[in-house]
Amino acid sequence: MQEDSDEQSETHYLLPNWRINEIILIAARFLIDEGYSENTFDYKKVISSKGIIIKGYSTFDPDNLKELHKVSLSLWNEGLCLVFPDREKGKTCCMIAFNDNKNVAEEIMKIILHEFAHIKLHHTEQSPNAEAEAILFSEAVLFLILPENGQRTKLKVALSERRKRLFEGIKARLIKKLNLQGGCMKIGCK
Asked: How confident is the model at residue 185 (pLDDT cuts 50, 70, 90)?
């Protein structure tokens, strides 16, 4: 884990256009498959239903939390993502932990979705490209589910009828929001 500081280090990663498209589609398909258009969409419940444990930082001893950050797939101090084998049960276990000192529900949602992205996108190690992809995935999900964006019904139409222009509009708004220029994305990791 990197040392905490007020300044964030910036890393540049080139997300190829095909990967940007793929991640946006993965985010959209995740939402559609999980019934996101329902008014009762509960992202924590959906993630937990996949066998992923979600815990706030406050549930951990501070020394243990530091150790967990060392083995997390995420480079971000606001959350961590652990994927480990359970040899007794013969399966893979996943856990997301997040900074639960945040007061804004949207910030907590962003952290949890970012960490979930590492699992959903099958990341296997810490890297700037994994962070860029997780940021894009979480921002795409947030963009599509927050009511002020009005994208809920439009997205289903775009995917079901393969309306390229609408998809490109969604993509363009995300690229603008994330300041992607020519696919180059600045990411900061504390």
From this structure: low
Who's near 111: CB < 8 A, 6+ residues apart? 76, 78, 79, 98, 99, 102
Largest CA-CA distance found in the chain, in angstroms, rounded: 51
Q: Model's pTM, two decimal places?
A: 0.77
166 vs 189: CA distance, rounded Å: 32
In single-letter form, the type of residue at position 178 comes to L
Structure tokens at 129: 């490209």
CA dist 158 and 7 (Å) reads: 40
CB 98 within 8 A of CB 115: yes
Reported as a single tens digit per residue, the pLDDT across 44-72 is 999 999 999 999 999 999 999 988 888 88
